[in-house]
Inverse folding.
């Protein structure tokens, strides 16, 4: 399933996801820290959604209460995971 999530409280503005059978197939962040977000996208490609959520949910960025990885988890929850 392809999904676009509008982020809240981060430098990235949106996340495009493709998840099939509970496996992350592709993730693209728009805006934000390009190198770091490309790295995260590559690292989680092929991972089970539940593992991504377990590892990244709740990560904060500086004094913010959320981060791009945390917003990715919000997107995955909105998708029903």
């Amino acid at each position: 399933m392809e999904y676009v999530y509008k982020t809240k409280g981060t430098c990235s503005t949106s996340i495009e996801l493709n998840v099939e059978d509970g496996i992350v197939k592709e993730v693209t962040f728009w805006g934000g820290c390009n190198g770091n977000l490309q790295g995260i996208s590559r690292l989680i490609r092929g991972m089970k959604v539940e593992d991504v959520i377990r590892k990244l949910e709740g990560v904060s960025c500086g004094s913010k209460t959320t981060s791009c990885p945390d917003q990715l988890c919000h997107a995955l929850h909105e998708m029903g995971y």
Remarks:
- The chain has a mean pLDDT of 97.
- Residues 1 and 19 are 5 Å apart (CA to CA).
- The chain has three helices and three strands.
- Helices lie at 34-44, 49-56, 68-78.
